Amino acid sequence: MTPPVYSQLFSCLYDQAEAVGQLGRGTHHSVFRSIQWRDIDGDFRDSGRFHHFAVIWDEDHDARIIPMIEHLHMTGLLWPVVFIGERKGMLTVLLSHGIDPTKERSDWFDTVRDIAGHAIENDPWTVEFGTFHRDPANRDQLTEPAGLISDREELVVAYLQAIDVLWQLGEERSERQQNQG
Questions:
Q1: What is the pLDDT of residues 99-126, one digit of tens each?
Q2: Residue 124, domain member (yes or no)
Q3: Domains identified in the chain, total number
Q4: What is the extent of the structural domain holding 163?
Q5: What value does the mean pLDDT of the chain take?
Q6: CB atoms within 10 A of CB 163
Q7: Is the pLDDT of residue 77 over 90?
Q8: Is residue 3 part of a domain?
């Protein structure tokens, strides 16, 4: 089945149209691919790279988040984001663990807050930030899901880890890079 087209700026690789299971309040997700011109450290590249990220939907599957993500993409702020979702008027953005977007752009967090505050006329979103660490067993407990999903943290982290196991979110590494480490 062909995923729906949510955006002309990034493609939908996988779309879960409605909730499966009992996590949160109707939690489900979609996985997207964008082209980024920064590497995982935030440095500009000579060529683009694939970047995968997931949108975590709640029961209302509020697609108004897509123009917000497009704005992040067009202003060069999407590169460190691995999960993003809207729940009850709160935008939650999870960055790849260990990434500091302020290294390259000191106003990164403030700009994301400003975009969310103006993304939808008469319906500003506040923003919460967290981190995602690729660790399927969550041994190091470095994932901070913030308010992305309303459920017990250990269940939320397990769900996020499962999505990442399937899609390898963040910067897509070339085969050469994977063989080196």
A1: 999 988 899 999 999 999 887 777 788 9
A2: yes
A3: 1
A4: 11-180
A5: 89
A6: 20
A7: yes
A8: no
